[in-house]
Amino acid sequence: MITETGKVIALKGNQAWVQTIRTSACQSCAARSGCGQRVLAGATSGRANQVLVLNSVDAVVGDEVTIGIDEQALLGASVIVYAVPLLLMIVGSMLAHQLSGGSDGWSILGAVSGLVAGLFCSRKLQKNKQQQYEPRLLRVNRIVSNTCL
């Protein structure tokens, strides 16, 4: 499970808006010099991200919470978004190349057609398993104070 902590900033029915800022992991990561996540975090100047999640732990506005997404779901979503369109683009290009007798123009048209078909397939596959790819609210991180009066 990939987790991130955040703060509940608003409630919307049975869902909660959670605000997160992704900076702590980048400082201790060994691959930080070549990582795309760090580049994106730098481009946004550490601005907060907001995620709408199902409020399954009865969090209230102001609570610090932990949200998470399953690694397998993230891997599956990556395959659907990146690999399916790329694979269909290559297949479309090869098929058009073979059918046209080696014409570059038809190969390009086949590649574009395959890419468009791949994007539509990805969208359909994603809609079928949308719940699986959404982050979940795992727990409320209650801070217990040990002050004496």
UniProtKB/TrEMBL annotation:
Keywords: Membrane, Transmembrane, Transmembrane helix. It holds the Pfam family RseC_MucC. It comes from the Bacteria. The keyword Membrane applies. The keyword Membrane applies. The chain crosses the membrane at residues 79-99, 105-122. InterPro entries: RseC (IPR026268), SigmaE_reg_RseC_MucC (IPR007359). This is SoxR reducing system RseC family protein. It comes from Marinobacter salinexigens.
